[in-house]
Structures are given as structure tokens and as C-alpha cells.
Amino acid sequence: MANTVSAIDYLMAPRNYPPAAVCVVFGDEDFLKRRTLLALRKAVLGEGDADFSLSTFEGPSAQWRDVEEDLSTRAMFGSKRLVLIEEADEFVTRYRAQLEAYVARPRSTNVLVLDVQSWAANTRLYKAVDAKGLQIRCAAPDTKSLPSWLVGWAKHAHGIDLAQPAAEALAEMIGAELGLLDQELAKLAVSAGPGGKVNADMVGQLAAWRARTTWVMIEAALDGNLPKALVELDRLLLAGESPVGILAQAAAPLRRLAAATRLVVDAESAGRRMSLRSALEQVGVHPYYLPATERQLRRLGRERGQRLYQWLLEADLDLKGASRLAPQTVLERLLVRVASPQHLASGTTQR
Fold first, then answer.
1. The pLDDT value given to residue 333
2. How confident is the model at residue 206 (pLDDT cuts 50, 70, 90)?
3. How many helices (H) and strands (E) in the chain?
4. Strand, coil or helix: what is 25?
5. Whole-angstrom Cα distance, residue 161 to residue 158?
6. 290: nearest Cα among 301, 278, 273, 302
7. Are 292 and 274 spatial neighbours (Cβ–Cβ below 8 Å)?
């Protein structure tokens, strides 16, 4: 019988999938992976003094002899020890033969957990763990299945009844960012209370406040009113909004300005002239907002308009771990660049 399961199924009923001597948690969906690793830890170690029976290694520097020694060490509390190899892709490559031998004949009741991104199904190691261990695949549900996942997760993790239309609205609003969706469900659970029902109107009200506040923040930055933009950012963060979610929503109008700038520059390179208004119309700015948006683009200037894509990418990568800056600082830096006069904002910032 195959022992490979999706993280979505595992998290809904972890007791149905008891830990084996070797467990592999693989895939690139960070929220599911974090929750799965926590669930495995609880299943193996229980509560209380569990940390005394947990060993964690960094995959790139871990040595097999040290891992094997810990696997052979008796748990200080409880009956089992959990040995976790984080970012274990390189570790698996270096010690594939040793891992294949260990899966075939584990030498203790302790549990080895490998946290990997890639886990090819055509390898001997995959097939061995599939036969004797436990493999948990961390991948986001597809677009069609996302609302159903939301309904089930809302009930399981937050104790609320999420109506199907509300789930569809959340999925449309945020997409398959499961960590952000979980945060939204947590906020809705506070409003609805234990066992409460959440409808599409409640989702719309929550989204409307965020969208309105983010819009005011970006409008202020584009108008050069940096103090106001920073105040609105503080409001969003104090309300518990995710920095990644704030950036995602703020990026939409900035990308339109970047696209309009590119249209104008490309037209000029081809020997044609294109007005700012025509460019803004082509990138989808509503006619009602054209005068204000044209004014903002003129203030932004060509150089900064061309750098918007780079600034947004840099902020996105920094929020996802490419920088040691605090998330709030990353967002504040983006607002400074958008709001400041061109000669101050166009330079690069060292990390």
C-alpha cells in the first residue's frame, strides 16, 4: 500500500497517517509544509517537554554520522525521538545510499523527517519511503478546488462555517496564497465567534476596508504625501494585515503605471509619439480616474516609472527572505521611493 499523501488530507486527519521511521515532507507550499511539520512533531513527541527529544539539523551542513548518532540516541522523555533535517535536498543528494539502507532497515524506533523541495518519484529512495515510510506532498490546491479547501479548513482550523460563496470570494480576492487565506479566516473567526457563520458580505466588508486603506496609502505616496502614506501603512499592519498581502494589493496600481511608462518609452523608441493618457487607457485605467492618474504619472517621472517593476520585485523578494530588513521597513522603503522627488528616489538602496 502506498504511503504518500497530500498535506491537505494529512492535516485534516493526521491520526489516519501515523509517523513512520522515515517521513518525507516535500513540495513548495510553505504554509502547508510548516503546518505539516508541526503536526508530525506533535504526533511523535506529544506536548510538554517535547523539545528535549527533538534534534534539528541544517541540511547543507549536516553529516550523516551525526544524524545517525541522534537516531540511535534514546529519547529523554517519551518513547521516541524526532530527528528533523531542514532544507534537506543537498543532504539527500550526498547521502542517498545511506538513506536507502536506513529506510530498508531502521535501527531504532526514532523518527527521521526530511524536509525537501524536490522529491522525484522515479528514484529508489522515493519508492522505498513510499513502501515503508510516510511521504507528505505540500502543494496548493488548484483554482477549482481552492474554495472547497477553504470551507473545510475554516471548519477544521478555525471552527467557523464558511459559506461556499464566501469561500469563492476569498479565493478570487487572494488566490492560492494559503498562508494569507489562513490569516483572513482567523480574522473572520474573530468577527463570527466560535461556530459562527461567515457569508460573502462579511468577506466583502473585510476586503473593502483593506482595499480602501491600501488605495489611500498608494494615492498618498504617488501624490508625494509620504507622512500620510506611512500612517496608512501603520494602520494596515496594526490591524494584522500581512506585509505580503499589503504588497500584493499595492502592486496592482503601481504595475499599471509601470506598464504605461513602458508603452510610452517603447513607442518613442519606434519613432512614434504616445500620450500618457492614451498609455493609461491601454493599461486599463478607468476613465473616471484618468486625470488624477495622469497627474501622478507625470509627478513620478519617466525614470522612476521605468524602475517600478524592479522596486516591486525587490520588495517581493525581500519580504520572502532575500533581505534581513524587517517587513515593515521593506514596505516603508517602497513608499519612500514612490513618494520622494525623482532625484532622491531613483538610486538603489543597499541591503
1. 96
2. confident
3. 16, 8
4. strand
5. 9
6. 278
7. no
